[in-house]
Amino acid sequence: MLALASSLDPDGIPEALFTTAAVTGHLAVGADDVRAALRELHRLRLIKNAPVVRVPLDVRGNAGSFPETVAADALAELWPRTENGPGHARMLRANVAALHTDRLCESGVHRVLFRVTNSLGESGQPAAAIALLERMLDQALTSLGPDHPDVLAIRHNIAYWLGKSGREAAAVGLLTGLLEAEERALGPDHPGPLSTRRTLAELRGDPPEVLETLVADHVRVHGPDHPETFGTRGVLATRRGEDGDPAGAVAEFERLVTDLRRKRGDDDPELLTARGNIALWHAEGGNARRAERIATELLPDVTRVLGPDAVQTLDLRADIARFQGEASGSEDGAARTAAALAGLVPDYRRVLGADHPRTLSLRTDVARWHTASGDRTAGVREYQSVHADLLRVLGPDADETHLALIGARSAAGDLDGMTDALEQVFRRDERLLGADHPDTIAARARLEDWRARLR
What we know:
Blueprint (H helix, E strand, L loop, with lengths): L1 H5 L14 H7 L3 H13 L4 E2 L3 E2 L2 H4 L7 H11 L7 H12 L13 H12 L3 H19 L4 H16 L3 H19 L4 H14 L3 H15 L4 H16 L3 H19 L4 H16 L3 H19 L4 H18 L2 H22 L4 H16 L3 H18 L5 H13 L3 H19 L4 H17 L1
Antiparallel strand pairs: 1-2
């Protein structure tokens, strides 16, 4: 027990790690035995155990060794499916960092390494995720070779987080080469190339027909009730909406809800997400009142299943406030929405952290609704504040950074500044995506339309 604790992060280990099946199975003891041993180690002052386990530095060096794969198994077992707090996720990542990643890539890449890179990316640190993945790639290439499925999975994840950080053209280039390598090494029906095709379709903004073909391939390979099939159907539904068919998106998500309910029951988190998306696409289709009603009916279920501090619960509360503002159509309604969203900011900061992309996005929304309420002074102030934080956290090329800048210029009535901000978006898309990408073409059209309005 002391050797395990000494192999992990000196700043704190979750006590629950010691009672995971990975640890108790390796030690051939029960959870009660583990808790008793921790109490005895604490009594002997060999560890501190309140409320996380810490090992003093003078003890760590004499505690012996512990199999790193067992420690990694325990961390992977402990990792929640959905991260709802920055502190716990940060602690888990720090404990993985205490292990030797090269040893976890010798016979295959340990799943906890993939989990920690996803955690970094989802917490608003895609650059850190990419850096760790690149180190993993170097180690895995040496021990496993270029065609090993785990090596190909690392390459996929590097491209995925490049895309999420605004470098879509680079991501598409990497994924195009990866798909050829995966189909050659693994065959076209392996989960790897199927996942790569889905990511490519999302990044390129492929039409729904491309995703329909991909859904059919998932059904053929995995069956209609496989998680990857359900996930790809959700992407297809979203693409229908993004392609200008919100009613089609609603219908697609309603069919997905029916099948998820049949397979998993009413409390499945993916089903709850799909129900929330039904509300979102009703709002996008112009029916904010129906969206508000659906979301309000959904909120008790999400709160009961996931908890009041779950990210999905917070997002749904924010969506309800937005739907109410859209349904009102008045400055008073917009002011109420701005106040409701501003009231959620402390919860987002507490649960996710001040620099999490969701927290920053919510603050951008607060600024937008302040402006819509007629309080342009508050709108400009909040836009400028969040823009400074977005520059620091996400960088100048992120969509959210540009949206905040455009919002600040618009709220201030700065017409020349609006032209400059729209041109920055166009130049960014042209540089990162290429002149013929749909996003670049749309950005050029917005800039030309704005210039025409000023003439």
